[in-house]
Amino acid sequence: MNKCNCLLISALALAPIGCSGETSYQLEYPCAQFRGGRDSVDSFSTGSAAYNYQIMDMFIRCSDGTVFKLSELKESTAKEWVLKMPNGSLESNVSEITDMNDKNATSYIVDSYNRFVFRDGQLVGCHFTGNVPFGQLSQAQIGVTTDGEFLAFPIQREDLFRLFGKPKEIRKSRFRPPN
Question: Is the pLDDT of residue 144 over 60?
């Protein structure tokens, strides 16, 4: 298992998808942020210090049809997903991290795209996209109830608003390559 000392929010904040100079948008909800282009979103983050470790109330339907409440995801499940990855190893996909309040957590990178962060067995942060090419979460969908409508990424803004309501804020941002 890798060890690193970094802010939990940094571990979750992945750069917006796109080319240099492309405009991306961040749609802010009370405890989550959806990211994408002008008309659709392709990922979301929830939890972390930025949201007082609260996880947005939603359900995820996996490619095999399994449905789970995100806030109830078990750390052992994230670990299993890592081990099922092609060349999946705990050493390269699991890290011990420290947040800005000096609290330790364990970060699991599943299928090279999705990150789940746990503290004391409880999910405290997540960066998620269902538009991945392989694994348990490939083509996963999100919804607000177990038996209601689910949306697949990329999600059209109008569909996101219909299911989750309008965000409290929409911000433009420019993609900047890492330094």
Answer: yes
